[in-house]
Amino acid sequence: MHKFLNAFIALAFFLLISEVAGVIGSFVTIPALPGWYDHLILPTFSPPHFIFGQLWMALYFMTGLGAFFVYRKGKNIHRYAHYKQKDVKIGMILFGVQLALNVLWSFIFFGWHLPVLALVEIVILWLVIALTIRHFFKVSETGAFLLIPYFLWVTYAVLLNCAIVVLN
Question: What's the CA gap between 107 and 26, in Å, rounded?
């Protein structure tokens, strides 16, 4: 029972921290959509606004779940494991860094209206997500695979951000 409770608390923590990152970013994103963002020249492949909220909620859920798998597997390390505690620690640090960068991007792009700086920042975010997946994969393939849709969406967001910079 104690082990189950600890696992449940860890799962709730990782899901909550991921979703909270999304909520924080939404504080600057939502007000900017009908105003500043709609006055930009957007590329033809720009998605409608209603997609952002649902998609990000699902992506944050998946990233939190992925981090949970890595954390749990890291708690069960035995001497014959193919991964090391260092892999878990680096993966968790990168997970936190990418969440912080994700929130920061929302502030730079939507809050401060700086698309060029946001483009630089989102490329860094994209690289950190790739590194996170790499380190997650060393510990939990499932945890790593859960970050793939997030990586793909951020790849798309890099292209969208770049097109906005070029068009405006």
Answer: 9
> What is the dihedral sign for C-alpha 150, 87, 95, 68?
positive
Q: Give yes or no for a contact between 99 and 17, defined as CB atoms under 8 angstroms apart.
A: yes
**Position 62: which residue type?**
M
Domain of 161, in residue numbers: 2-167
Please tell me the total count of domains within the chain. 1
Portion of the chain with pLDDT greater than 70, in percent: 96
Cα gap 102→121, rounded to integer Å? 9
Supply the pLDDT for residue 52: 86
Q: What is the CATH number of the domain that holds 69?
A: 1.20.1260.100
What Rg do the C-alpha atoms of the chain give, in angstroms? 17
Report the distance separating Cα 122 and Cα 116, nearest Å: 10
Angstrom distance (rounded) from CA 109 to CA 121: 10
pLDDT category of residue 84 using cuts at 50, 70 and 90: confident
Measuring CA to CA, which residue among 132, 127, 159 is closest to residue 146? 132
* Predicted confidence (pLDDT) at residue 41 exceeds the cutoff of 60: yes
Quick one: tokens of 168? 């405006």
| Residue 108 DSSP one-character state | I
Say what the pTM is. 0.93
